[in-house]
Amino acid sequence: MLPLGCSLWESIIIALKSNRACVTALIKAVSFALACGLILALPAKAAPLLDMPAPATEIGGWSEYPATLRLPVGPFAAGVLPLQDVAGAVTQRAYRMDKQRLTTLQLITPLLHQLNAAGFTTLFECEAQACGGFDFRYGMDVLPEPQMHVDLGDFRYVLAERQGAKGVEVLALLVSRSADQGFVQVSTVSSEPGGGVTLAPSGQSAATPEADVAAPVVAQDLAGRLMTLGAVALDDLVFASGEAVLQTGDYASLAELAAWLAANPDRRITLVGHTDASGALPANITLSRQRAQSVRAALLGRYGAAADQIDAQGAGFLAPRASNETPEGRARNRRVEVVLNP
């Protein structure tokens, strides 16, 4: 330990005054901390973990061992974002590519090729609204702005793993863009000394190696929440910006809703579309109603629901669930809800 009277400031000053006792003690203290894993330095300009698709600058990051990183293993659906707490030696870095107009697909594709060549297997991948939009982005560990910029309507996520010499190695990619910049966040969890990375459900202990990939804790299902709350947002639905037609795809919320309606033929629901506060109210009410009608058509055509059980209406921006003053709030307000009729 440092001699009495040898504060951090004094340690800096006395280095210039050749006080060998304090300097030697300071070096020993730092060396001890490094040996015990109390300090894990991340160089300000460390070599990228992956070759970026364009000239890039590392603008933020951290590294720590032991540590835990919370990573999504599936999309946000029916009010649930499935997460895993991954424990081990954690590194998270953010890169920015200036004066680039690459799409998020162009950003992530060469990175995926590198992962595949390195022996990684993709566990889960998604894009923007299919991921869960606002709830997905704010449910995971992301470096703060301006280190990592995430456009809620234009981002992609990939979770991958490979078997390393000492256990499982996990890597997550998050890419997004602005008008003329690309952003990439690379998160890695490598094996602990003498053992592998431990996976456990979020919020539970990650100390037991046997619990490699435990199932995430899932909250009450859509039908249960509908009966309890009377209304549920269908946050996994995907619409193109400004468009009323529901994009083609498999939607877990609609499949569950159709199954519940079939099992309860005496129940009736109303689908209510909502928008953000951009534009005039009449136009927003029309758009929100059209989106609700598009969801109704999907329930009837793709999932076999009965027409007399489902109505569709639009509320425009009259029932926000977040502030319309921020992009994140506006993204949350654009939704279709299912309301249980009396």
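(the above was protein one; protein two follows)
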Amino acid sequence: MNLIILTKYGNKAPSSRYRFYNYLKYFENEKLNYSIHPFFSDKYVEDLFNSKKRSLILVAKSYFLRFFLILGILFTKPKTILIQGEIFPYIPSYFERLLVFMGHSIFIDLDDAIYLNYNNTFFFRLFKNKFPKILKISKGVIVGGKGLYDYAKKHSNNIIIIPTSIDTELYKKFRNNSETLNVIGWIGSPSSEKDLEFIYPQLTRFLNDFDVTLLLIGNIESMRSKFIANHKVKLIEWNIKTELLELSKIDLGIMPLPDDLYNNGKCSFKLIQYMALSKPTLSTPLTSNIWVDKENLNYFSNLENDNWYESLKLIYLSKDFKMRGLKNGSIADSFFDVSLNAKKTISFLSI
């Protein structure tokens, strides 16, 4: 198989790193002939994560380079092309259709509900059928969660759920378990801080009433503008080298999300990380969060009133806290390991 991988970002962006770049060594082990081509540059990703204004020159360069890459592929021998979402953002599906017309096999990977990006745009009429068309002509669709599967099955008959995966052997080195709840943890980018903000008043109330602290891992400059650090709340700068060490300090991982279409299309990666460290989790009961909970071990907030204070109080008083975490580690080993899911990806692309 000659495989061309078209990602949205390079290795610095979690979505592309975990769903593509972390597979590459396993592709090499299988003697797979591949090339990988990000759309946006690392500089664009750095500006995005640091909430800086993105350079229009960098954006234009991204479109220019991708255009000539596709031109070069079009007239070569038929290849298998794995696309992260779409070839070009905010351009109709002309290029996906051209590749198929020229005999290439395209596979689409979805790890977010990016098809919703076009729902409220000025060019809605132009883009509203973009993803239905792409999914229909693709040879197969890989999705990261159940919510995305429910969307994709409307337009494709060949779909597989492959969750965003981690190296469980690495996570095992950092596993530890507490009998009781002492530290609540959250990890996220600046774009997901708004999800934490809407439950933050309940969190601070709980911290004031119980002997528990909160550990937040992310962009510290951005977090400081929203959350006040004190003896109960610790803000930690995210770093790929220390990520697992910092996460291993928590006893419970949380993932609050408003109940909307976009969030129901998420892949629950925070929960996967917590579970791989043998931590119990508490999250909003949305489609993929429930799917990730393979054995009904994790905790969910009440969707009707979203009462996180009461949910945390019940967890604090629970007697099976450690058992849930230990079983989560075993589930992560069986379902979320990168080596297992790399093999599933290769098998699916070989159909």
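Reviewer note on protein two: The CA atoms of residues 90 and 123 lie 9 Å apart.
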